[in-house]
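[Structure tokenization] protein backbone as discrete codes

[Encoding] learned vocabulary of local backbone shapes

[Begin record] amino acids and matching fold tokens:

___
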Amino acid sequence: MAPRSNEPRRDTEVPRRGSSRSAAGRDSQGRGTTGDGDAPERRLGGISDARSYTPRGRTVRDAGRPDRSADPFRPALQVLDGGRKGPVRRTPTQPARGSDRAGGRDDQDGTAGRAGRDGTGRAGSGRAAGREGAGRTAGGPERGRTGGNRAVRGPGVAPAPRRGTGRTATDRKQPVRPHRKPRPPKLASPNRRLRFGSFLALTLFAVIGIRLIVIQVVDTPAYADGGLAGRLSNPVVIPAPRGTIYDRDGAVLAHSVEARYVYADPTEVTDPAAAAAALSPLLGIPKSQLLPRLVPQKRPDGNESQFEYLARGVDIDTAKQITGLNIAGIGIHRDERREVPGGDLGANLIGFTGDDMHGLEGIEGRYDDVLRGVNGERIFEIGGGDLNKAIPDGYLKETDPQPGSSLVLTIDRDLQFEVQRILSEAMARVRATTGTVVVMDIRTGEVLAQASHPTYDAANWKPSKPTDREDVATSFVVDPGSVHKPIVFGAALEEGVIAPDGTLPVPATINKGGTTYRDSRNAQGAQMSLAGMMAYSSNVGTIMLADQLGPQRLHDYQLRFGLGKPTGEGMPGEAAGRVLDPKDWNGSSPGSIPIGHSVDVTPLQMTAVYAAIANGGTWVQPSLIRETVGPDGTRTPAAAPETRRVISPENAAALRTVMEAVTTVPGATGLKAAIPGYRVAGKTGTGSRVVDGRYAPGEVASFIGMAPADNPRYVVSVFAHTPGGGGGDIAAPTFKDIMAFTLLHYRVPPTGTEPPEFVVFPK
């Protein structure tokens, strides 16, 4: 059954042709005139004139086109519901259509259902009544019925007008409320459940996807390395090339050369005793020291040790011999060895390294962090059991080593060699136990040579004694003796206590705190010139000048000249020395301190004092490092040395002239230091060595001088601890030989001038 069309009825106000509402059924005024006898005719005429409609209100033509998309059960439901399709809106001008069927149906809007035929034979049309305006029928009050019975109303049909009134529901303008069938309970929406379920599923997949990304991207190393720690070998150190130590001209003083290190894997050594016996003569290590490294042992982490050093820095030829033995568990790998081409040349300065290539003494120890660099490391994946070897294409982590920087020293290799040779011969001649020589460029404070006696071979340092490896210039603490007197003379000139050509009556002795001090040459109270007091090293004259200065001013000049603290040259363990504060002086201090006793100094400190006098009165910090060369070749000069003014250039020049008397005045203490053709200024000294706060047996002979005296270039100091003897006899000749070679080496010509004529006892 085809469903009823949902299109609105296209009725108009003009009666349709053949309709039951034709002119034959109305009077001349348009009112209905037919009675009950007209009913058959009207019924026949209504059927013949009716428009051809299907029972569902569709034309025959329309019925030929069924709506396939409509609900096939809808017509049946409409029949059960009285054949209604629901309310249809009408415009105010559209007439209501009554039903042609007795007991009939209401029209589409459900507001004017027909009441059948009344007793007068007229159709009780709500629309016709509406047009009359009065709402009455022609038959009077009783004409609203058909055959005396009430019209049958179906569901949704408006109630019939009251009897005798002749009015319909439309005339009274009462609202017609359509009958609504009860709605069934609303079922749950499947779309909502579907959307909610889809949302949950998508959320779950999103969480899983994000977690997978985190695991595969962020946490990949943690999962990838799971269990890897148990398969990794112990770290193998890749030694970083150690920096080279050069002299001032680029000559190598110490450098690293290619070598091999020998190691053992105790887990693979089948016969430790036999292996130790075979390796001992080649490595030069006792079997008792090798055997503990060859037997299986536990590491601190509890794992079996698979790597133990047996020897480092092994010669390549020796390493080849060890490889030829084919000892199970013994391996060879590339290494480096520290080599000192000069052997003992500058050994006390350069120092040495240990087997692990760490600096232990000297410059190697002091600048170990600069020279050493950073070692690399190799870790690789190994198998287990019998496959305890590196896995090809397995895990491998290798950190490249970073080479260390190199150092360029201020030392001149050729000068250092000659100084060491001269010092060694002199020490042997006077049977000295300890000695040192320092050669310094007064213009820059650079140390050109710094030799010590005794010395040792830095390339093979293990057999040497610790005392042989000391740098005497910075660790040798002594009472300077008379070489301290130029400090008092310089302070007296600077403070105006005495003029360069002034004189003092010098008695035979002087007493301070119960101690009597005397000169080796008795002046017997005669006037002695400043040059004469310097030439004969007058103790009494020097104490008299110190008395006029006073303790505090003398102490101040000691500090200005650099005594009482390390020079900062660059050697490790440099001694500071000591000068007494005036409040700590005792009764004899005014007599002992001016002549160089009760004062602790190092040879390097006293060398810097004379360099200040030589360069015009400015103290310049001694230096041993000239520049640093990085792994990439970048050169970084050393920091500028500290300087300070001590005395004026005029007083410094006057003091140098006075000091020339030491090497020129007949009978002076330093005649053996004179160099033909050159003017030499200096001072001899005889002091004592201080060991653990006490004086050691013997005497310390010293001489410090400069040349050319009228235009100095270099200062040379010589100190020697001997069983006996003064500086004039022991140290002065050594100074002469070294200064002469230095001037010749650097091609310093004589000035061509002569020293002045000094008068010791002017009248």
Notes: The chain is about 30% helix and 15% strand. The first helix runs from residue 39 to 49. The longest strand covers residues 252-264.
